């Protein structure tokens, strides 16, 4: 009971610091003035928006999770790809050590707009495959050694509670004043389920290494060097993979 109370207290405190805006850059297939008008309309209450139709770029400064901005843009009928996130930024692809859980997602960390070099980071992302309407932990561990799955990542460095919705997705967006983006590179993210009654340890559901990622105006990729396809083909491959995962049976957590 005391542990649950403390988790709820920390969660509420973090929600109170769900502040601060960051800049995001999207590559968008824009064709004509109508496209620009539609995107401006759907993002009118989201933050400061700058659209460069010639470059196919949408730049927004906002405190809304990136996935929500992405959904709004694509709801206008235009395809969009996130190409830049904040200033100094890092990302963890959380998809290791999850053979029995199918829990996976992406977590991004970046400095707040106008606070380059200062401590504190926006934590933004989504985790799928969790049990419905549950409380979990987003843990940062000291090292990025996932050679033995999620059991070889070293000691706990930082911990934050997250919650899943009725579909088993945790949509994450808060400011953690304890984190410094520069100090996160090479560490790892581990998603855990709290220990049940009688259990000694939390259950580690999935993990990933934190790596440096492109900030705004730092990603000029039009063709992926890994397989020679355009960013739009890469986007379609990602969607297909997501659909395949949704069709696959998911273990109950």
Automatic annotation (TrEMBL):
Keywords (A to Z) from UniProt: Antioxidant, Zinc
Catalytic activity: 2 superoxide + 2 H(+) = H2O2 + O2
Domain HMA: 26-78
Top EC class of this enzyme: oxidoreductase
Cross-referenced SUPFAM superfamilies: Cu,Zn superoxide dismutase-like
InterPro entries in the record: HMA_dom (IPR006121), SOD-like_Cu/Zn_dom_sf (IPR036423), SOD_Cu/Zn_/chaperone (IPR024134)
UniProt EC number: 1.15.1.1
One Pfam entry name: HMA
The name this protein goes by in its record: superoxide dismutase
Origin species: Anopheles melas
